[in-house]
Task: inverse folding
């Protein structure tokens, strides 16, 4: 048996580059060569395959759909933590929620979408803030958070709702006490049920439209950086379709909307509002 060839050749790298682009809209630049090599090496070893080329053939065999997904999972970057980008949470708490409460009509539900939710810290932060400010212990449903990601592993992890020190770094002691319970794993905490019930997790590729939904706010943070202009445009079209007129869009620190900007007004850095007429 030949030993595993752990060098990712340039022509093999290009195959994975094309695959990530056509499936997820993610543009892996040549600078990501070692990252791709390192992240896929474990898969080759687990499957006892001899080269990256063999691995590429393996995942493209229709019988190995699960491994195709494992490859996508391995090549996404999932960095996140609770209450990341403080200015977003302040604006939500100080402006958007009070506006919504002022115009509230019985039966209305505040709907938020965490559109690249990773392991769940962002949608649970939304759940906590909206529970605190809107839902409380009131009877009847007043808030809903949809959390989606293309990576199956992070969605499974998010559903478990268990977090360690890194994820919890920005949480106040009061918040930890109110909305988390010590878990069986030492040093980890689990989001309590009344917050978990607000958040619904689903697998979803942002390159595809999301059906039958209308949101008051969409968090699309730290994911556009992985897309080129064409993928960004498609994602923005899909997002704009489900954001209510007057709804708010939140982007990550390094992100702006260049396409479809005429359908949004600028609120403050990384926060945009969809104009009321389409
Ligand atoms: C860096 S994380 C951002 C997490 C969170 N939004 C935040 O800002 O803390 C980026 C996430 O985008 C997801 N992602 C990448 N391409 C995607 C696509 N085409 N559709 C849906 N999610 C995608 C990745 O799986 C990853 O979990």
Result:
């Amino acid at each position: 048996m030949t030993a595993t060839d752990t060098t990712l050749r340039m022509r093999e790298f290009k195959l994975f580059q094309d695959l990530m682009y056509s499936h997820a809209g993610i543009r892996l630049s040549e600078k990501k060569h070692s990252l791709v090599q390192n992240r896929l090496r474990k898969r080759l070893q687990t499957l006892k395959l001899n080269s990256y080329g063999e691995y590429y053939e393996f995942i493209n065999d229709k019988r190995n759909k699960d491994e195709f997904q494992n490859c996508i999972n391995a090549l996404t970057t999932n960095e996140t933590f609770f209450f990341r980008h403080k200015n977003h949470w302040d604006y939500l708490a100080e402006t958007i929620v009070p506006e919504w409460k002022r115009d509230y009509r019985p039966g209305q539900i505040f709907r938020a979408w965490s559109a690249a939710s990773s392991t769940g810290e962002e949608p649970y932060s939304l759940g906590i803030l909206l529970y605190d400010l809107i839902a409380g212990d009131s009877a009847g449903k007043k808030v809903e958070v949809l959390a989606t990601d293309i990576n199956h592993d992070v969605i499974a992890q998010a559903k478990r709702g268990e977090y360690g020190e890194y994820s919890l770094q920005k949480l106040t002691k009061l918040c930890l006490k109110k909305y988390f319970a010590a878990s069986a794993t030492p040093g980890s905490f689990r989001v309590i049920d009344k917050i978990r019930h607000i958040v619904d997790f689903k697998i979803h590729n942002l390159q595809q439209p999301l059906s039958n939904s209308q949101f008051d706010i969409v968090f699309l943070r730290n994911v556009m950086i992985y897309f080129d202009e064409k993928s960004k445009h498609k994602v923005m079209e899909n997002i704009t379709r489900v954001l209510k007129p007057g709804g708010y869009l939140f982007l990550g620190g390094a992100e702006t909307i260049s396409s479809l900007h005429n359908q949004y007004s600028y609120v403050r850095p990384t926060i945009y509002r969809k104009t009321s007429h389409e």
About this structure: The longest helix spans residues 86-102. The chain has two domains: 10-74, 86-274. The beta strands are 110-114, 143-149, 162-163, 180-182, 189-191, 199-203, 215-220, 243-251, 264-268, 271-274.
